[in-house]
Amino acid sequence: MFKPVYRFIGKPAALSAFCLALVMSGCQDNMDEKNQLEVEDLIAFSNGDLIPGQYIVVLNESGISFRKDGSYEEVQAGMRKDASNLLAKYRISGENLREVYGSTLDGFAATLTQAEFDQIKSDPNVKYVEQDRFVALAPPPGRGPGGGGGATGQTVPYGITRVGGHANYTGNNVAYVLDTGIELDHEDLNVDASKGFNAFTSGRDGNSLTDGNGHGTHVAGTIAAIDNNIGVVGVAAGAPVVPIKVLDSRGSGSYSGVIAGVNFVGANGKAGDVANMSLGGPVSQALDDAVLAASNKGIWFVLAAGNESRDANLSSPARVNGTYIYTISAMDSNDRFASFSNWGNPPVDWCAPGVGINSTWISNSYRSISGTSMAAPHVAGIRLLGNVRQDGNVQNDPDGTPDKIAVR
């Protein structure tokens, strides 16, 4: 069941992001789904979800002094200088400055006292300030974060079949996976770490983009596991998957770190690329603004609706709407709406398989888990291959407007 999180794991400044989903309740009619059901848990939010003294500061255009048409590194340097100058204006040490953003969100994260917060939020160059938050991903029920068995021969997961089967990817775009990283040497994945980003700067997770948890590797496999006669196959088989590590090996993170990942994708991605965000939490205007801005560059953002059995409009970034944004709910192998899935039209655009999904896992292995985290990457893979089409509607959608089932 749920429990609050009251401690930081690792260095607070490096914390970044969150994973989705809620413990599944109720019985499944399908015996196979009973055996496979493992839902990634979102630790319940409580008073402990606010990071004490840490804030995300978003600036007006008047607060920017640098040109934004430079490289990612140049823009980051320009924002760091402007942020430092703003802090210095109120005699706040530059050591308080954390992440900076300039490509999708004009702003930065910083640690502030209450008095400093009051000064910063009243500055005419500041648009708004919100307190940073952190959440943690629990391991699947009954198992730690280890593997779930190696490959003995390739199988096609039912979800891949339901969305129209797989195709070997031959395009020039990539799939950015904003998650716990991706196992870099998994034999069933084409990982491009050269394009990756790490929100962590120290410790185990700061040393590598590889996945110490499993969740990001699972997402990557559904998008693009290779058609190679072993393990599983993804929708856009063999497509390059890029680790954007915003969750640590224990599944811990913060909004400020996730925004840093979105900012990086927005700066370095190109039109036609896909960014999968199987993560979410309470409403965050800063996170929503960053996702929308990055998507407006022609990068497709595929967002998990969340697994709290509630209106997806209560969750970020699931609630964001945009031309290049899809929010995805989950269904089972019988096209029935998953009891854990969030709902709502808008923001939900498509429904995809998310119950008992088999995919790649760490330690060069495979595992079946459930959640809208697992539904979203089906659509991310479809989007890499081309347009998303409809094949019927999901059954028993609790909002009364059945979501469209996504196929390629």
From TrEMBL:
Keyword Membrane on this protein? Answer: no
What name does this protein carry?
A: S8 family peptidase
Molecular function (GO) terms for this protein are:
serine-type endopeptidase activity
The residues annotated as the active site are D179, H215, S373
Q: Name one GO biological process term.
A: proteolysis
Q: What is the lineage of its organism?
A: Bacteria, Pseudomonadati, Bacteroidota, Cytophagia, Cytophagales
> What parts of the sequence cross the membrane?
none
What are the Inhibitor I9 domain coordinates in residue numbering?
Answer: 54-137
Top-rank lineage group of the source organism: Bacteria
Q: Which family does it belong to?
A: Belongs to the peptidase S8 family.
Q: Where is the Peptidase S8/S53 domain?
A: 177-382
The alphabetical list of record keywords is: Hydrolase, Protease, Serine protease, Signal
Which organism encodes this protein?
Answer: Litoribacter ruber
**InterPro entries found in the cross-reference section:** PCSK9_ProteinaseK-like, Peptidase_S8/S53_dom, Peptidase_S8/S53_dom_sf, Peptidase_S8_Asp-AS, Peptidase_S8_His-AS, Peptidase_S8_Ser-AS, Peptidase_S8_subtilisin-like, Peptidase_S8_subtilisin-rel
Q: Does the keyword Signal apply?
A: yes
A GO cellular component term found in this entry reads: extracellular space
The signal peptide stretch is 1-21
